[in-house]
Amino acid sequence: MSLLADPASLVALVLSLAVAGALIGFLAGLFGIGGGAISVPVFYELFLLLGHAPQVAMPTAVGTSLAVIIPTSISSARGHYKRGTVDVGLLRQWAVPVILGVVIGAVVATFAEPAVFQLAFVVVASINAAKLLLGGAGWRLRDSLPGRIALKGFGMVVGFVSTLMGIGGGAISTMFMTLHNVPIHRAVSTSAGVGVLIALPATLGYMAAGWGKPDLLPDAIGYVSLGTFLLTIPTSLLTTRAGVTLAHALSRRRLETAFGLFLALVSLRFLFALGG
User: Fold this and answer.
1) CB neighbour list of residue 71: distance below 8 Å, 6 or more residues apart
2) pTM as predicted
3) What integer pLDDT is reported at residue 6 of this predicted model?
4) Which residue ranges traverse the bilayer (predicted)?
5) Could you say which DSSP state residue 144 is in?
6) Quick one: angle between helices 148-165 and 88-108, nearest 10?
């Protein structure tokens, strides 16, 4: 806790969270994602600097990241909805299975090794990144979305994996939709709504999972740090609208390229974490 006793370090901490929040909000608006690929490693390193053990720092980083995703995803989804590009019907079909996947993921997260799910994400994301960057129109699973049963099954997978990885699910759902020939702007916009479906129940799950555990952060409710949440949210909400505006200003090809680059970077980040 000596970090908090040093004013210069405290200022650096607050500025770091403000910058992280700004990036999270911008990416939420631009790609319809929660920003967990940024917030989880930032929060994890912060909690280690504050002297907390990795076994507390990691689940708290994931839980706090999911909490931050709630308001940013709501803001992003509203912005895209006003532009008429959110597939509300698909979100309705996904609502129950996504939440069910979140519940299962929160239970499994108490004993599962997340490296397996990170590796699976890297494989799928790398393939889709190559598709988007190379502009391969033939790189599709189908020319349209699958039937209702398959859709519900995939919704459960999105909720399950996202909860384990501390992400809002937007990267996974956008990949799924673009591989089924959904236009990139519609996929990004709808994925913002997916973040809302995932983040709220997942956050409650991490609060419950950490309830009463020893050596938690002083400001934490279970595995969610309220102080970190409050310091990150202001800038994230300020930049979400800018991300939405840019997403709709970009052409289809440029947005595909930008999202492909993002997936490649996230994959590299997870590979680095797996290697460490």
Assistant:
1) 233, 236, 237
2) 0.79
3) 64
4) 12-44, 56-74, 94-112, 119-141, 153-176, 188-208, 220-238, 258-275
5) S
6) 50
